Amino acid sequence: SMAKERHQYGAWRAIADLNLVYGPWSAERVAPFSPVVQVGNPRWSDHFDAPIPSLLDLNPNFDSSKRTLLYLPTWEELSSLDEFAEAIAALREDYNLLFAPHHNSRRFESERTAAAMRAICGNTATVTSFDVGHLIRASDVVLSDFSGAIFDAILFEKPVLLLQSDALNNIGRKFGPESIEFQRREEIGP
To answer: DSSP secondary structure string, 21-37?
Structure first.
């Protein structure tokens, strides 16, 4: 991930003989610890030629007259779930909503994730397991916070709306003002 630089680009990178990184931003930060090779993000290489999935498969309540918003929050203390879940839920009348919790939220924050799902989706049903790349490609706009998913959305040329209220109060072990998702947020999205 490119987000949360204090963790992603930390000294722990020195244990590797070689770090494969996305591009120049990552390479510049990891190079002091270990040799690097820029490889882009191979995770998405198959997505550019694949058909975009049907929104009816992603959301049984899909309304083709509405735009589709995808909410991709991060987890733990940098997550926007607690602060924004109800506001996002209020958008249901005007937009199709897709919600894909962070994979660690599902595993380590299941109660928090279920509460957000109830607020956003109106139920506690498990999100169908779709590749997040499919979700991004099928959406019109991505809502996120400090998640690395914002860079996946940019790669797929989707507009991003950042939910980063009071960002400087979130400085800690994972995130700091040097992190790209804060430092370059004016270029990422409103």
So the answer is: ESSHHHHHHHTTTS-EE
Among 128, 134, 77, 124, residue whose Cα is nearest residue 104: 77
pLDDT tens-place string over residues 150-176: 999 999 999 999 998 877 777 777 778
- Please check whether residue 175 is in contact with residue 146, taking contact to mean a CB–CB distance below 8 angstroms: yes
Provide the greatest CA pair distance for the chain. Answer: 52
Indicate if the alpha-carbon torsion angle 55, 126, 82, 86 is positive or negative. Answer: positive
CA-only gyration radius of the chain, Å: 17
- Alpha-carbon 185 to chain mean position: 14
What percentage of the chain exceeds 90 in pLDDT? Answer: 36
pLDDT tens-digit series, residues 118-135:
777 764 334 456 688 888
24-28: Cβ within 8 A, 24+ apart: 25/180, 26/2
d(CA 109, CA 29) in angstroms, rounded, equals 30
| Tens-place pLDDT, residues 17-47 | 999 999 999 999 999 999 999 998 888 888 8
For 60-86, b/e burial (b = at least 16 CB within 10 A) is eeeeeebebbbbbbbbbebbbbeebbe
Q: How many CB atoms lie within 10 A of CB 50?
A: 12
